[in-house]
Amino acid sequence: MFRCIPIFKGCNRQVEYVDKRHCSLPSVPEDILRYSRSLEELLLDANHIRDLPKNFFRLQRLRKLGLSDNEIRRLPPDIQNFENLVEFDISRNDFGI
C-alpha cells in the first residue's frame, strides 16, 4: 500500500511536480508553498481540503491544479492570480448551487 511521503525539507532543487492525491490531507500542506517559483503541477485530489489559504495563490508558475474530490465550498477571488493555469479540476466538491 502506498503512503504519503512528506516533501523532503532539506531539498534545495527546483520542484515542478507534486502529487499528494489520496493522502487524507485536511488542508494544503505548507511545505508545498516553498516551491512557489518552480511548481508547475500540483495534484491534491481526493483529500479533505476545505479552504485554500491566501498564500496558496503565490504559486506563480502553476499550470495544472487538481483539487477534485475534496470538501471545498467556495473559491476565493484570488483564484484569478493563477495566470498560467491551463488545467484546473475542482469537480466533486461541496459547492452550493
From TrEMBL:
One of its GO terms (biological process) is cell-cell adhesion. GO terms for molecular function: protein kinase binding. InterPro entries: Leu-rich_rpt, LRR_dom_sf, Synaptic_Scaffolding_LAP-MAGUK. GO terms for cellular component: adherens junction; basolateral plasma membrane; postsynaptic density; postsynaptic membrane. It holds the Pfam family LRR_8. This is Similar to scrib: Protein lap4 (Drosophila melanogaster). It comes from Cotesia congregata (Parasitoid wasp).
